[in-house]
Each structure stands twice: as C-alpha cells, then as structure tokens.
Design brief:
single chain; 3-stranded antiparallel β-sheet; alpha+beta
C-alpha cells in the first residue's frame, strides 16, 4: 500500500476529467507534505485511471487528469 493511497482514492472518486489540488489540500488528505517521493509514487495513479498532469511549485498545485 502506497503512502499516497488515500490521495489516489480521492482523485479517482472525484470522477472529474481534470482536478487541480493545492499542496495544502493534498497534505490534508494524506497527512504528508509533498516531497520527492511523490514524483516516484505518481506512476501508481495510472492504476486508478488518472495521471499527474502538471506540478506547479510556484502556485503549489498539482493537476490530475483522467486517462482516456
């Protein structure tokens, strides 16, 4: 089980084609700050039918996109 499983479940359950979340929202769901392990773990999201579209360090947001 990934430390980001709660986030992957949240993104999948949203059902949205594109979902923008702040680092703060992600931390609220996972209880974790975004760190370098997120870059490694983001590939797990494909099993849920989504992918990480863009990570903005400036805006502190992550965009999740539903895969076709």
């Amino acid at each position: 089980m990934s430390k980001y499983s709660a986030l992957w479940d949240y993104v999948c359950q949203s059902g949205q084609a594109s979902l923008r979340m702040t680092f703060e929202e992600i931390q609220s769901i996972t209880g974790l700050s975004i760190d370098h392990s997120f870059l490694t773990c983001k590939k797990e999201l494909a099993a849920y039918g989504y992918q990480v579209g863009k990570i903005s360090l400036k805006k502190q947001t992550v965009i999740f996109n539903k895969m076709e």
